[in-house]
Write a structure and sequence with these properties.
It is built from 14 helices and 6 strands. With 316 residues, it is α/β, with parallel strands linked by helices. It has a 6-stranded parallel sheet with strand order 3-2-1-4-5-6, sandwiched between helices.
């Protein structure tokens, strides 16, 4: 170091640590003693970063329940395949969910659970032989349900929910569709033609399918109105289809004169993707409300959120 460089360091100005503003303090730290004494999971989360956000998400959800605002849950099929149906069914039973938003794969797996108590195949194992997705019963049952129950008033969600609830499905107690019908929770199903296994079958009626899913898009615009001023919209495990549908349905609400503002959104997935980040978390709440992103496995994060919500609701 030259004499000139050393002289520069001598002119550095400092100030006391007591004058500095701090982002974290011991008041934000986790307190295991509180958890042991009060028995609440909330005490296990520090009040910083995602620890603060997960409790904020719970607070928004609980506030929506107590203020009579809608809480809608959109989810991909992986949530069903993670064994979480009983948790979601209990939330419906308690009156905490006011709408389920599913993709095409979601209803396929849910219907199979109701029918035989099992679902999901090894894609790689059956792809080479051309057997992937070629079971007989699933497309036949979905087609029959749409043909019987879909109408100008009933879209794909209601048609399938009624078919499973009233049909010969031995394991319907584990079905989101049947439970939604039982508890009066609206279900909308949003299909991308060619994306689901049933679209490979000759029994699939593309016109019937398209009309039924389009009615559900229209129905979703009605459900979104309930988010205004305090509602909650969660997107769980759908990276493309449902975030795109949500943004368009929300736009349609606002375009036709229905204010849907100041609500909370949350995207939960194992990875954060572009469309959920912008179409669920950021853009819909940019003029009011709050968006959150939680990263983690559904089979861990959703039970944790459920437990936190249950504690708060029962405490209140």
């Amino acid at each position: 170091m030259t004499p000139d460089e050393f002289e520069v360091l001598q002119r550095v100005e400092t100030y006391s640590i007591h004058q500095r503003q701090h982002k974290v303090s011991i008041q934000d730290f986790i307190d295991p003693a509180v958890w042991r004494r009060e028995g609440g999971l909330r005490g296990l989360f520090p009040r910083v970063l995602k620890g603060q956000e997960i409790t904020a998400i719970v607070d928004h959800f609980v506030a929506a329940q107590r203020q009579g605002r809608s809480c809608l849950m959109a989810m991909g099929a992986h949530v069903i395949k993670c064994g979480l149906n009983p948790l979601l069914i209990d939330m419906m039973r308690r009156g905490w969910l006011h709408g389920l938003v599913l993709n095409g794969a979601g209803v396929i797996h849910d219907l199979e659970i109701a029918l035989i108590g099992a679902t999901s195949e090894e894609v790689a194992q059956n792809l080479g032989s051309g057997a992937f997705g070629m079971v007989q019963e699933t497309p036949l049952l979905i087609h029959a349900a749409l043909k019987q129950y879909a109408s100008a008033e009933a879209g794909m969600g209601l048609a399938l929910a009624q078919a499973v609830a009233e049909g010969d499905y031995p394991h319907k107690d584990y079905s989101l569709l049947a439970s939604a019908y039982r508890y009066g929770v609206p279900v909308t199903v949003h299909v991308a033609i060619g994306a689901d296994t049933i679209h490979m079958h000759p029994t699939t009626d593309a016109g019937l399918l398209g009309q039924a899913t389009y009615r559900d898009f229209q129905r979703l615009t009605l459900l979104l109105r309930g988010l205004h001023d305090g509602g909650c919209y969660w997107n769980i495990g759908s990276a493309v289809i449902l975030p795109e549908v949500f943004l368009k349905a929300l736009t349609l609400c606002r375009n036709t004169g229905h204010a849907v503002e100041r609500f909370t959104t949350m995207n939960l997935d194992m990875l954060q993707h572009y469309r959920p980040e912008f179409n669920v978390v950021r853009r819909p709440t940019q003029d009011g409300g709050r968006g959150y992103a939680l990263t983690g496995h559904h089979e861990i994060m959703l039970p944790l959120l459920y437990a936190l919500i249950t504690e708060e609701m029962e405490r209140g």
